[in-house]
Predict the 3D structure of the following.
Amino acid sequence: MSTTGIAGKDNLPYKTYLSEDELPTHYYNVRADMQVGHAPILHPGTLQPVTVADMEPIFCTALAEQELNATDRFIEIPGAVRDFYRMYRPSPVIRAYYLEKALGTPARIYYKYEGGNTSGSHKLNSAIAQAYYAKEQGLKGLTTETGAGQWGTAMAMACVYFGLDLDVYMVRVSYEQKPYRKIVMQTYGANVIASPSDRTNVGRKMLENAANKGGSLGTAISEAVEVAVSTEGYRYVLGSVLNQVLIHQSIIGLEAKKALEKLGEYPDIVIGCAGGGSNLGGLMAPFMEDRLAGRPAPHFIAVEPASCPSLTRGRFAYDFCDTGQVTPLAKMYTLGHAFMPSSNHAGGLRFHGMSPILSQLYHDGFLDEARAVEQTAVFEAAELFTRTEGTLPAPESSHAIRVAIDEALRCKETGEEKVILFGLTGSGYFDLAAYEQYNSGTMTDYIPTDEDLERGFATIPSLPGIQ
Ligand SMILES: *Cc1c(COP(=O)(O)O)cnc(C)c1O
């Protein structure tokens, strides 16, 4: 191995791949190791903890069971799912040598790259598992929502592989302004519908008010759920927030930990962007296992947009996961289910709530820290990353890059040779309008005022006897 030049300067490789044989055989369910589990998910009608039977009209049975599984630490990855994973996994752990040099930091920065598949993000890891269990159950099709389109694209790939129909309710502004992902989904055979639509009660109600026409993720979720529960042989799938999604995404952390072990490395800091919490939950899971067992473990940092600050400024309370209030209630950090990030917010991560598992870990101090960052600072980091490491990152992922850079610069001041691991969740190829705003200097930052947040908090339900 070359010891000259930038890459390989300390005799460690630039990219570390596991072999296909080393692909994990089991997902890790961090929930089974938590002493204090998250508060039970409540049925929106009865306010009683949901059962598998309650969830069966919405989710396929195996996934409903995973949702409530607080006991099995490891869950076998079905062979057919591993076969599909082989198309694009194991994904590499990359040493950011070129970024380190540009920063002049003594820190060693690693990133786990999940953008190397056509859907362009980590979401495919869960889409495959969810489509597999639906097929196993003999279902005909699935419904889901998508904002910018990463999750819809991932589901389209998974459904065509397993031979399932797919209806994707796509937030109308994205449907109209970001047509390319829609075309990719259609190419994989998915049926893409602009939301709000006139196909559902929720959609028709939203369309009565012209102000709602652009749609929101919350409305698209309500529509997709309504169609799933009212169509024979259909169920609904969601790409983040849920416990089952965190279980599937643990593959990111399991691979990363194993790859770093090969290098003799263990991270001092683990950083992930947090929208609904699935990539960070997955990346940190096997390291959190160390923490929960009382072993030395990294410092965990969740990074969110200052314009949608659920962990840093939200309330830890029961709330609905959707605008239409058809989904169960979860106790989580939330900005209120009617919260809408400002329209100048370009960087994704716009969900009002946060995974109940991550919320509980944060509340109990196991997820050490949450940081909110402004979007111009995020794109500044994305630009430096693109120019040094060569990969154009998704804006969501760039939140993690921002904080990785900040931590590496802190090491430069203190001289500490910390090992930093962050999740590079996706590629930025479909986010070029946001890059253009940044490049042309027209991107602005917006931080909601306390009054703005109060309007969202006012929509958190008050549940007599519960909260
Ligand atoms: C969806 C998405 C995220 C955020 O979702 P999490 O569930 O918080 O991981 C982050 N990065 C990319 C590229 C995404 O598509």
Q: What stands out?
A: Residues 243-262 form the longest helix (20 residues). The two ends are 60 Å apart (CA to CA).
